[in-house]
Design a protein that fits this description.
By secondary structure, the protein is mainly α. It has one domain. The protein has 7 helices and no strands. The two termini are 15 Å apart. The mean pLDDT is 89.
Length: 141
Amino acid sequence: MKSDKLISASWFYKDDSEKIKLNWFLYEYACDLFELLYADRTKRIADWKAKLTDEQLAEFCAYYAKRMKRSIVDLLESTTRTIKVYDEYLRDFCHANTQRENMAITKIGSTAWDKIMKSCAVCPDKCLAEPCGHCKYFDIM
């Protein structure tokens, strides 16, 4: 996958204490988001993507995943199982985006969420069940 070459797992921790399952989950989400945005061939975000290099797209995906941490923590503390995505996640990074672009990116972000949740359902590591647990994958990378 192209995302593995452009998005570094080290972007998701500063020291060993941050090598936790939640941060690994964010890394995986960033990779899924990158792959979906990169593969999107619709006109919805074509102009937006045309302004970015692959590296900038990877940086955006990492940024967006890190911003999702707030939503994930809220989800884990809530009795509802609905993830909330806030408009500022995009506005703070993509100042010149149109509303149409933001809606399309948010929709792709939602698809990435669904994709990672399907993967998590069969994964034995259960990152969201033990978000503060040490994640061995950071040490393998």
